Amino acid sequence: MEITPQKIAVIMAGGKGTRFWPRSRSARPKQFLAIAGTETLLHQTVHRLEGAFEPQHVFIITTRELADETRKMLPELPPENILVEPEGRNTAPCLALSLVEIERRIPEGVMVVLSADHWIGDTEAFIQDVDLAVDHAASHQELVVFGIKPTYPETGYGYIEAEGPESAGVQKVLAFREKPPLGVALQYLESGRHYWNAGMFVWALSDFRKALLEHCPEVLTPLDEWTSQGADEAALTAIYGRLPRVAIDVALMEKARNVALVSTHFRWSDVGSWPAAIEFQEPDANGNVVQGQAILLDVKNSAFFGGTRLIAASGVSDLIVVDEPDALLICHRDKAQSVKQIVDRLQQEGREDLL
Amino acid sequence: MEITPQKIAVIMAGGKGTRFWPRSRSARPKQFLAIAGTETLLHQTVHRLEGAFEPQHVFIITTRELADETRKMLPELPPENILVEPEGRNTAPCLALSLVEIERRIPEGVMVVLSADHWIGDTEAFIQDVDLAVDHAASHQELVVFGIKPTYPETGYGYIEAEGPESAGVQKVLAFREKPPLGVALQYLESGRHYWNAGMFVWALSDFRKALLEHCPEVLTPLDEWTSQGADEAALTAIYGRLPRVAIDVALMEKARNVALVSTHFRWSDVGSWPAAIEFQEPDANGNVVQGQAILLDVKNSAFFGGTRLIAASGVSDLIVVDEPDALLICHRDKAQSVKQIVDRLQQEGREDLL
């Protein structure tokens, strides 16, 4: 009889999420918003693990700025399981810090790296895929990445090229590919061997340590020294501030050779923009989606994310309206990416009150 | 040397103005809004008379509901010059009540009837036209109406058919015409003898009394009885509530034969809708008009009547956006008349808080 390895979840929850302005703010990032259901994405991410992970083995890693609110939002987790980055420095330092923090508490286990601000359908399929990846990582000492089967030639995601064919649901990874131009994305889509990289990883603590030390010791070694010196919280700020700002994909995954891919069987969305959030709402007969109270006359294909105020609209179509007490967004559905420009403008104008 | 007759202004200020929802409300009608300049329409109407009328000869008539606020807004007028209708019952009762109230204070004079919620350009030309009308009314014992030269075939106004040609700026009126269908409005426009009826009248107190008694005694007689019984305010409510709801045009002007028209030399607008209000704002290079703070990206031909909140818009055109703390209107420029439907809906839904 095989022994099930200890499963540890690490949920990265330090995202800023300016793309949901004006609803998302620096102190209220995307993972704190209920934009893909009635629960926040953070709550959904944690609750999805219920029954499959012990609460004391579910860790959140977030920035100092967001830690208190995150702890408050998740009374079901031990408060000390909310790990704190002094600041956001991309995913390699984030996961290396998670590693050393978890190693101090749990000597052995398999770490499942998840994002707090993604949506996942089909919890059962998700847990099955996780268990498959955990078993594979534990039994093969490999770094496992989840691969999402692409459904269209998205140019905003990184891709993973797998060798194929699958053996027991797992295949070898040949390469990680940066966000492609459209022509390349189309080739990827046709190849049948390219998967979206959703930034979800599974690896044994010991294998992750080994791989970091081999491929990017500059990320792990300073943290190991910090641990050996007593892991003083104040000391971490200076050490962490000198770690390279680098993604785990670049620092580790692109270099490691023992990487395997589990192609997923659950529906997934990174809920990357307002139009993506609209997909989670049931439209009325005119294609409109309403949160809050609205009177709509001759309105089509529009979305109203309101609050307590009444929104009355007439003779408009293809709009996204987001209504917050201090700011209002009115945007053509095809122009949702311009939210970034608006946020940039607010930064230039020093409107920290709105960011 | 001719004696200049005593000029008395009566400004009707009981309008409800639902067409400017959500900025206009039952307690904040159109005349209280600064929608055609930096001052409210009421203030503009009163200030336009400065120098030409004695403050004690400027009267406002409004409803009980609006009287306190109107008095507060106009400290430059004697408080007792704010005349109070127990309720709005159209212009014939309103002007008959004005007559009996003014007669108690001023035995003789010429009454100039104005609206509190119209915009008038060229104050000098306006005062000249007023003086011409006052002199004519006083010297000819006629009821004078101002006629606005039509510039397009408006179907929302009543018209006045004049006999022409003018003699010393005045001509005889042949008929008052109801709001016409478009074909008729086009004929009126071509005739050169039809004028818009802006509801501005000039007549001696004594001539007005005589005409009311002749053509609609049912409007004046009960008020005369009320006066003879001591003009008790509480008694007025019951008496006023039984007066016919009728416009002065129908009750009097269409029947009287001693009616003259002064064609105006000032610019005029009844500021009847949000698109009309936009005309008073200077658009930017993209045809946009902004009140308040806005970030506009690729926005054209739109108007933003904001408040303290930031409005950010992207990729939209031909919108009217009106932002109030408790309600938001987003409306295609060509659909501004649907504000009425929205207000009707709110009434049906019992949303008095928003009306």
Structural description of this entry:
- Two copies of one chain form a homodimer.
- The first copy, chain A, is of the alpha/beta class and 355 residues long.
- The first copy, chain A, folds into two domains: 7-269, Spore Coat Polysaccharide Biosynthesis Protein SpsA, Chain A; 274-354, no CATH class.
- Chain A contains eleven helices and 15 strands.
- In chain A, the strands form three sheets. Chain A has a five-stranded mixed barrel with strand order 6-9-7-8-10. In chain A, strands 12-13-14-15 form a four-stranded mixed β-sheet.
- In chain A, helix 2 (64-73) links the parallel strand 2 and strand 3 (82-85).
- In chain A, helix 3 runs parallel beside helix 7 and helix 6 (205-215) packs across helix 7 (217-228).
- The model of chain A has no long low-confidence stretch (mean pLDDT 94).
- The A-B interface holds A 21-22, 295, 297-298, 306, 309-316, 319, 321, 323, 325-332, 334-335, 338-339, 341-342, 345-346, 351, 354 and B 22, 295, 297-298, 306, 309-316, 319, 321, 323, 325-332, 334-335, 338-339, 341-342, 345-346, 351, 354.
Portion of residues in beta strands of chain A equals: 25-35%
The CATH class of the largest domain in chain A turns out to be Alpha Beta
Series of secondary-structure elements of chain A, N-terminal to C-terminal: EHEHEHEEHEEEHEHHHHEEHEEEEH
Mean pLDDT of chain A: 94
Number of distinct helices of chain A: 11
- Number of DSSP strand runs of chain A: 15
Identify low-pLDDT runs of chain A. Answer: none
Side by side, the strands of the main sheet of chain A go 6-9-7-8-10
CATH overall fold name of the largest domain in chain A? Spore Coat Polysaccharide Biosynthesis Protein SpsA, Chain A
The number of domains of chain A is 2
Q: Please give the alpha-carbon distance between the first and last residues of chain A.
A: 54 Å
- The CATH architecture term of the largest domain in chain A is Alpha-Beta Complex
